[in-house]
Specification:
- This protein has helices at residues 9-16, 20-35, 51-59, 71-81, 102-106, 161-170, and strands spanning 41-42, 65-68, 84-85, 93-96, 121-125, 138-144, 151-157, 179-183, 188-192, 197-200.
- With 207 residues, the chain is an alpha/beta fold.
- The chain has one domain (9-199): Rossmann fold (3-Layer(aba) Sandwich).
- α1 packs across α4 (71-81) and α2 crosses α3 (51-59).
- This is Phosphonate C-P lyase system protein PhnH.
Length: 207
Amino acid sequence: MTTTRTLTYGETIRRIGRAPEDSQRDYRRLIDVLGRPSRIAAIDTVDGVPPVIILAAGLADVDVTVAVLDEDWERPFFVATGATRTDITRAQHIIATQPLTVDQLTSLERGDALHPERGARVFAAVTGFGDAVDGADSTTLILSGPGNDGEARLSVDGLAPEFFDALAIANADFPAGIDLVLVAPDGRIAAIPRSSRISIEKPEKGA
């Protein structure tokens, strides 16, 4: 029988911290999936730390305002990164280790046509990308817009259709809006930038 040893606080801080070359590699992969919204890439995982924390940590610095929606990871994240803590409604980066609610999503900063850079970027943990058995807990999105040749599909496990309906509404006034980065437990990542048009694929009747 194997047991999982709990990390000490110091070990947690060290594992969250990213070397510059690791951060640069993760950043390139993030840019890749933001530029091609139906694409799935992968980052290296770190034992004992959720991949969504690892990815966001590599992109955070003292000039980035962050909200970490997890009490267990909030303090270690800010100690490791030096990022500025703020509440969810004002943060540039939001890190969610559990599914965001529609109310949380609609409370986020979207910027405006003159200041689109003020729009939030959400790093959201999901349970997979079309891995759910028999499609349970999976939402298939139809994405169009920059980076896609016509329409492309992305299946996301662990976030309800209502969440993506709310995201589509939040991003209706591009270039204002919210960028969504999805991170699975195995380190796979995908992204839905605010420039993407989103609809939900409806199951065929009788299927």
